[in-house]
Write a structure and sequence with these properties.
The protein has seven helices and 13 strands. With about 325 residues, it is an alpha/beta fold. The strands form three sheets. Strands 10-9-8-11-13-12 form a six-stranded mixed β-sheet. Residues about 230-245 have low confidence and may be disordered.
Amino acid sequence: MRRYGKHTDEDDVRVRPNRKGNRPRTSIRPKHEDAAEGMVLTVDRGRLTCLVGDRTVVAMKARELGRKAAVVGDRVSLVGDLSGAKDTLARIVRIEERASVLRRTADDDDPYERVVVANADQLAIVTALADPEPRPRLIDRCLVAAYDGGLEPLLVLTKSDLAPASTLLDLYGALDIPYVVTSRDELYAGEAATVVREYLDGRITAFVGHSGVGKTTLVNALVPEERRRTTGRVNAVTGRGRHTTTSALALPLAGAGGWVIDTPGVRSFGLHHVDPSRVIHAFPDLEPGTEHCPRACSHDEPDCALDEWVAQGHADPARLYSLRRLLATRERREGD
């Protein structure tokens, strides 16, 4: 059956629509030169709360970013409604290059890498000296992740009234890591925050630790106007607390120009993403000695040149021991 007469014009011709949309795709993308700069404060089910100027704006990731995800601490560029009013939504069109990245995997055999925090200056590793018992292997793993990601570590030891700090500090003395020791009374009275704060002013600090060590209690004392729910008690059987912080959140330190990023409590810290060869960069006194190591040296084998380097007095033997302990941590599953 003939649909059209002899004298059809362009308006009479039916054009089959494109299945993917009537407008053809183009490789030219807008540059968004007028986009506003912001910082990601928290991420919740695809919605990102960002600080733009002096106001918070809720945004979503633009489709053109593909699978690239923004995380807490990211510097981003936004367009759309930037008023911050209720029920408004902006769009993140660009994620700036990261100065540092704290990453982890669920376990050592899990290839899926999770970026926890971006652009932090240091990593505060919070651990209790008792109730729950300290887990040196977990601390070691956090240290490896910090060194690999470009963050400076800070040890925050809590509950010193229950156990002495000397035993744990002896393990890390050769690494020259700054540390703070606090008691339960200081922690819950807020006095610990005063001691810790001098390490935080003017810096972006991510706090990490397993549940029940007092991490969120300390964060609440540092930023009292943004209190987060803390863990109630530690399980007497497992020695572990229950997770109460479920998402990372960046909080400003009043009058200090710094930021505190509280992260969810961790029970494991996989290092599948870490190349063991990069751990040596955290030991500048040992690194020159690797020039004479055999190819693909693990730095823990009979022919390793670091033994001779230390024997000649170029570095403290305790430093070599610490390096090898951290490298062994990378190869070991977290179970204690």
